[in-house]
Amino acid sequence: MPSELEELVGFIANPNPQVRQLAVQNLVPFSLEQPQIFKADDLQPIKHLKLLVRDHPKIAEHVLEILVNLSGDQEILENLATDDKFLDVILLHITSPKEPNANLLAMLLANLAKWDSLKTIIQRKQPPPETLGSDELVLNQLMDLFVKGADGSFNKDADYDYLAYMFADLAKHAEIREHFVRRQDYDEAVPLTKIRVFTEHKSDVRRKGVASTIKNVAFDVPSHPAFLAEDEINILPYILLPIMGNEAYDEDEMMDMLPDLQLLPPDKQRDPDPKIVQTHVETLLLLTSSKGGRDLMREVKVYPIIRETHLRVNDEGVQEACERLVQVLMRDEEDEAAGARAEVEDDDMRIVEV
Questions:
Q1: Is residue 130 pLDDT above 70, yes or no?
Q2: What average pLDDT does this structure show over 104-127?
Q3: Whole-angstrom distance between the N-terminal and C-terminal Cα of the chain?
Q4: More confident residue, 342 or 90
């Protein structure tokens, strides 16, 4: 005889919308506490939940909360991430300017990106909303949603912050990294240049996801010249500003720094999250894999910035990353070729999940 909880799961598929809404509303906490109840009968409850994403927005809201929670289970994650028809629905809904549950859809996509097969999203196409100004590539649409929707101007109910986590996980894959540094025909912009401005955004989620995306894309070593060139991606100011505070530098040091880093206001604060600071320092370390990168960082006085970061951020991960970067920047020229390669290939510098 089924338990009361199992009976409640059965009401997910009830033809009465009021019953469905009451069922999914009451099941949200159990999606964290007892995820196994949703795996009965060969994941039949999951199949029902996937259909209800298109239900009334109030029902769909609770359904998405449940799916976000359940996607931490590998069996359920695989079921969701490999269902092309379900992905079509998710991607169509999130790009609608009137979708009230867009942020929950962004959270779900961020979780689904942990399944490797989602990298095929780079091949997906769908008609773009006219107000988005994007092309048919879904990945470009999501990037434009993330950028243009940040202030609520595209969809009053969404900021799309969690798409940053999706980008970071997708950037584990070489083909996605290459896409993020390739100029797109429809707007003549490099995707990475669209998100670099968010390294100092007010949202912790957005800053963390963007920092991790930049770091993961930086594993594409052939793109480093574009990363560093002022007239291309020009990533250095956007990495260095978040790790700088209001400390004073010697005039000689300051005048050689990048223009954006000079004469910062006295109330300038470095990113309060040490994990984000560590991520930026690790990105700098990746960018020292070429002699050009090392020479540029020495020329624009990155060392004093790292010195002050090491001194002022009391975090083991940040201090270790700073020490490793300093070792590269201070290394004699004859040791650089072997040393920089060892830094990049060190086990501690593997791409990590957000």
A1: yes
A2: 97
A3: 42
A4: 90
The CB density around residue 188, as the number of other CB atoms within 10 Å, is 7
Distance, in Å, from the CA atom of 211 to the CA atom of 354, rounded to the nearest integer, reads 10
Tens of pLDDT along 14-49?
999 999 999 999 999 999 999 999 999 999 999 999
SS3 137: strand
76 within 8 A of 39, measured Cβ to Cβ: yes
List C-alpha distances in Å: 307 to 165, 280, 282, 321, 331.
29, 14, 14, 11, 15
Q: How far apart are CA 253 and CA 78, in angstroms?
A: 52
- pLDDT of 182 > 60? The answer is yes
| pLDDT at position 263 | 85
Structure tokens at 300: 């624009």
Amino acid type, 2: P
Q: Output the CA torsion 205→274→302→305 (10° steps).
A: 120
Question: What pLDDT sits at residue 299?
Answer: 95
The Cα 158–Cα 102 span in angstroms is: 6
pTM: 0.91
DSSP tally for the chain: helices H, then strands E: 21, 0
Residue 193 near residue 213 (C-beta atoms within 8 A)? no
The rounded distance, in Å, linking the Cα atoms of 290 and 224 is 8
The closest of 242, 239, 320, 244 to 283, measured between CA atoms, is: 239
What value does the CA radius of gyration of the chain take, rounded to a whole number of Å? 23
**CB–CB of 79/113 below 8 Å?**
no
> Could you please report the per-residue DSSP string of 314-325?
--HHHHHHHHHH
Q: Return d(Cα 172, Cα 216) in angstroms, integer.
A: 6
The secondary element (H helix, E strand) that includes residue 213 is helix 204-217
Which residue do the tokens 């994007």 mark?
134
